[in-house]
Design a protein that fits this description.
heterodimer, A: 267 residues, alpha/beta, 5-stranded mixed sheet, 12 helices, 10% strand, globular, B: 666 residues, Rossmann fold, FAD/NAD(P)-binding domain, 5 domains, 5-stranded parallel sheet, 18 helices, 34 strands, binds flavin-adenine dinucleotide, binds iron/sulfur cluster
């Protein structure tokens, strides 16, 4: 922890960065994100086992971007988000100063995207066994059971859009949900509209979701909506050989055509 | 409030036989925003159009729906009529109540109801239509012709003779292509070189044509009317201005045993060489891979003997930038070599040759001075077997198509053989004889009747060597599949015509599509045979599929006319039905977030990046922008854009959504 604080202090002092996105103690016993712009604020940085959430979502937020040059404490999910965002031209190489805490509490700083790619090749990027088991359960359902399962889940949605705000890939200034000419997604949260929203969300994250789970964490209604996007990870990997958030210059699997692409999903 | 006019057409009886057109017109009049509606027997006829124009003026219509046939047929007609009546043509839409309704349903109330629905949907759409203006793009009146075979030559000359500039890029040291290798040509048996070389010379001398040989296209950017092409001129190790083409160097080069490509390996050439005597340009190139100097660092004999000191050992490749308004692809085809066939000895029998090799043997300028002598020992073969469909029409070999030219040139070969070896017997194994074409069937008959060629219907299963003879085993399927065995002195395989080596890579460089066999794909097999799916790029000759000379030349002239038509105006007018990425006032500029997924998905490379700068010139945003010249309005980007920043003029999300809602909210 001290090493982290010292490092960030130094980075702020020598003006390498203007602000650092890290973890800090929340008002309750929860951990929250803090944006350290001064040495004094940097001294409040913490790194505990509770510091697991993906901070990268803040990188593109208008308010944060305007703080100047940013540094961030990234975990594996955040590194993958950064790679995915890079492949979508949202972050340039060298634009963000990236620190990572190793298992032995030492710090790694990633000087460029290439080193992140090399690191991710060896990192564990799988979904958790628990998530896996839940997906298997869903996939074992018949089509109508699955339909019912999701409809039941989505019925609970209050359209607060917390999931959208938490997702690092949801960076559009104007989300489809906000478009009203035409009104693609009904504003009110009724069954039909909720379903529209969640299907649209899943489609927009197909092949882009880096399985950080922030969407489900953010959901006040405990909808396991991360499972829907996770379910798309495998088909895209087996169908097109692509995994999101692994390479900064990846081309989106669903926007490219190769003559040898499988077409077995066409029914 | 809209003032829309609805015009329901009977199309003679085509529509009115199953749809109650009067009723459709009546019901439509009740729709909100419809000011006028009528029905008529033939809306597309002169009186029909006049009726439409007058109604626009009289009722001050601000939108028109013509309920008739498919917009593919008459949309231009009605849009033009609207425009003549002072209404923006893009405020006119068609409701397809013929193909989508009357033709596919029986006479029934429901059919009429469906027609009403289709009209209602279009009325709602037209309310959302915006006046659009056609797009003007400047045209660079220079054509790039890639490939200098007979097709490329024909296209280049036709375009140049229309007064336009042409740049021809040929990969080999000389133009001429396969035709320059042929001896005589079917169906007239005139000498191939004699009819081709005057055209080759014309290319070299034409004031409007710039010829780059030993060159390849490396990059193509831009779009119809405005292509930017980078051509790599490979180094010939020669100053072409100084070289007089005397050929002294080629006689003195110590490397004399390099297999001659032009003779298809049946002869040799030196390292500094001119591919054939009538080559255009008639100037040598040094084949660096086989030149003693480039291999060992010593020699330079050619430099010493050259009277004009034209040899340049240190010459480098040159990159030339070309601006062109149109591109003609004429890169031709290739034929399989005998080594493709395990059953015919994998190319290990010297006297099993392919058709092109036979052409060289029969050619007066060839390695045997036109005498038919077999490669192994120079003997004149007394029994010769021609195998048609070698590889073609053979799914097991991955070539399911008919190569089309082989039946004819095999008949020609048999004839040429008989004309040269009077006591010889030519045999032809064939599957079917395909001789469709002017004087083609007569030609084959001549080979059979006058020149006594033995045609055997059946496939050759194996060929092997025995005591200096080639044993050809097959079956005669017209004799109840009776086995046939011929002891031949020589075998000629009419090997399948295939796409040129590198065709796929070239297609990707030039951005045109190709078929499963890697031949370039035409935009429509019947109605757009010389166009590609990429506007401004055309096809000529055998790069599209195996073709004979008459067909290649005809296609080339067709492509040339398309180019000339394109060049007939200084500006190109395009339909404005293209995608646009929205723009808004600062500081937002656009709802596009610059993820550029649209860029990778666009099949026409129409998405560009636009940098938005602040007053100090710093880039604050990079946004997608649609190139109006390249966009074909396919809509793929629209489907992919998550933030709905892209839309298509004429088929906007709003318009399509409205149509769907109009149907649902019935
Ligand atoms: C054995 C045989 C006998 C035949 N006999 C007859 C006959 O008697 N009568 C008849 O009508 N037809 C005959 N044909 C068919 C005839 O050869 C073709 O119709 C004709 O050659 C097609 O012309 P082309 O210009 O389309 O292609 P090609 O002749 O193949 O010319 C293509 C040209 O493009 C060049 N090129 C290729 N790739 C590139 C590149 N990437 N960049 C630049 N240049 C490139 C090549 O070097 C070549 O010069 C015969 C064919 C064969 C194989
Ligand atoms: S969809 Fe959920 S899990 Fe996937 S990247 Fe977004 S927040 Fe993370
Ligand atoms: S350098 Fe020698 S080998 Fe090379 S082309 Fe000249 S004469 Fe031939
Ligand atoms: S897909 Fe949409 S948001 Fe992304 S760059 Fe293209 S226009 Fe912009």
């Amino acid at each position: 922890m001290n090493e982290l604080i010292n490092k960030v202090t130094k980075l702020l002092n020598d003006k390498t960065i203007d602000a650092f996105i890290g973890y800090g103690q929340g008002s309750t016993d929860r951990v929250r994100a803090i944006f350290a712009r001064t040495v004094e604020q940097a001294s409040k940085l913490i790194y505990t086992p509770a510091c697991t959430f993906n901070l990268s979502g803040y990188l593109l937020k208008h308010e944060v971007k305007h703080l100047g040059k940013l540094g961030i404490l990234a975990n594996v999910a955040a590194l993958r988000s950064i790679m995915q965002l890079a492949s979508e031209f949202q972050i340039k190489d060298g634009e963000v100063y990236i620190l990572f805490v190793n298992d032995d509490a030492s710090l790694t700083e990633f000087s460029d995207f290439q080193s992140i790619e090399a690191f991710l090749e060896k990192a564990n990027i799988d979904i958790t066994p628990d998530e896996k088991a839940r997906i298997e359960k869903i996939e074992a359902m018949s089509v109508s059971e699955r339909w019912e399962f999701w409809n039941k889940e989505f019925e609970k949605c209050i359209k607060c859009y917390a999931c959208r705000a938490a997702c690092p890939m949801c960076y559009c200034h104007r989300c489809t949900t906000d478009v009203n000419q035409p009104q693609w997604i009904p504003v009110a949260s009724h069954e039909r509209g909720n379903l529209d929203y969640h299907l649209m969300r899943a489609m927009h994250l197909a092949g882009r979701c880096i399985n950080c789970g922030e969407c489900a964490n953010a959901c006040p209604m405990d909808i396991p909506l991360n499972l829907l996007t996770y379910q798309l990870i495998d088909p895209i990997k087996t169908g097109f050989g692509a995994t999101a958030g692994m390479k900064a210059d990846a081309v989106y699997a669903l926007s490219t055509f190769k003559p040898d692409d499988k077409e077995n999903f066409i029914i | 409030m809209s003032r829309i006019g609805v015009f329901v057409c009977h199309c003679g009886e085509n529509i009115s036989a199953t749809v109650n057109c009067e009723k459709v017109a009546q019901i439509s009049k009740e729709l909100k925003g419809v000011e006028f509606s009528t029905d008529y027997k033939y809306m597309c006829s002169d009186p029909g159009q006049t009726m439409l124009k007058e109604a626009i003026k009289e009722h001050k219509l601000d939108g028109v729906v013509v309920a008739a046939c498919s917009p593919r047929m008459h949309e231009p007609t009605f849009r033009k009529a609207c425009s003549e009546a002072g209404l923006n043509p893009y405020l006119c839409e068609m409701s397809n109540i013929r193909e989508h309704c009357s033709w596919v349903h029986p006479k029934d109330d429901l059919t009429t109801e469906k027609a009403e629905d289709l009209v209602r949907v279009m009325v709602e759409k037209v309310k959302k239509n915006k006046a659009l203006n056609s797009i003007k793009v400047p045209v660079t009146k220079t054509a790039l012709v890639i490939g200098g075979g007979v097709a490329g030559i024909q296209a280049a000359l036709d375009i140049a003779n229309c007064g336009h500039k042409v740049v021809m890029v040929e990969k080999q040291p000389s133009i001429g292509g396969h035709m320059s290798q042929l001896s005589e040509t079917f169906p007239t048996l005139d000498c191939s070189q004699c009819i081709l070389t005057p055209r080759m010379v014309e290319i070299a001398q034409h004031p409007n044509i710039t010829l780059y040989t030993y060159a390849e296209v490396e990059k193509v950017d831009g779009f119809i009317g405005n292509f930017k092409i980078t051509v790599r001129k490979k180094s010939k190790s020669l100053d072409e201005h100084l070289c007089t083409g005397c050929g002294l160097c080629t006689t003195k080069c110590p490397q004399k045993k390099i297999p001659n490509e032009f003779e298809r390996g049946l002869g040799f050439r030196p390292a500094i060489y001119v591919p054939f005597p009538q080559a255009v340009p008639n100037k040598p190139v040094i084949d660096r891979e086989n030149c003693t100097y480039y291999i060992k660092g010593k020699c330079k004999v050619c430099e010493i003997v050259c009277p004009t000191k034209a040899i340049r050992f240190d010459q480098e490749d040159e990159l030339v930038e070309i601006e062109a308004g149109a591109i003609v692809l004429a890169t031709g085809f290739d034929v399989l070599k005998s080594d493709f066939f395990p059953e015919y000895g994998y190319g290990k029998y010297k006297d099993v040759i392919d058709g092109l090799q036979f052409e060289r043997l029969a050619s007066a300028s060839g390695p045997t001075m036109g005498e038919i002598r077999r490669p192994s020992d120079g003997q004149i073969p007394k029994k010769i077997v021609f195998v048609a469909c070698a590889g073609s029409r053979d799914p097991a070999k991955g070539i399911e198509y008919c190569s089309k030219i082989c039946c004819m040139y095999t008949a020609k070969h048999a004839m040429l053989y008989k004309h040269k070896v009077h006591d010889g017997t030519p045999y032809v194994f064939y599957m079917d004889i395909r001789a469709g074409g002017k004087m083609y069937e007569e030609f084959v008959r001549r080979a059979i009747v006058e020149d006594e060629t033995q045609y055997i219907r059946g496939r050759v299963s194996t060929i092997y060597e025995k005591n200096g003879k080639l044993i050809v085993k097959g079956a005669d399927t017209l004799m109840g599949a009776e086995p046939v065995e011929i002891e031949a002195d020589m075998v000629v395989l009419a090997t399948a015509g295939v796409a040129n080596h590198g065709a796929e890579a070239l297609a990707q460089t030039v951005h045109v599509s190709y078929d499963a066999y890697k031949f370039f794909a035409e935009a429509h097999p019947k109605l757009k045979p010389v166009e590609t799916n990429t506007a401004g790029i055309f096809l000529a000759g055998a790069c599209q599929a195996p073709k004979d000379i008459p067909e290649s030349v005809a296609a080339a002239s067709g492509a040339a006319v398309k180019v000339a038509a394109l060049f007939s105006n200084d500006e190109l007018t395009r339909e404005p039905l293209i995608a646009v990425v929205n723009r808004q006032a600062p500081p937002v500029f656009s709802s596009c977030v610059g993820c550029f997924l649209c860029q990778s998905v666009c099949p026409y490379q129409a998405i560009e990046r636009e940098e938005i700068k602040n007053r100090n010139g710093e880039v604050i945003k990079t946004l997608a922008k649609v190139n109006e010249g390249l966009c074909q309005g396919c809509g793929t980007c629209v489907a992919l854009c998550r933030t709905k920043a892209i839309d298509i003029h004429g088929y906007s999300n709003q318009q399509v959504y409205t149509e769907v809602m109009a149907l649902l909210n019935d």
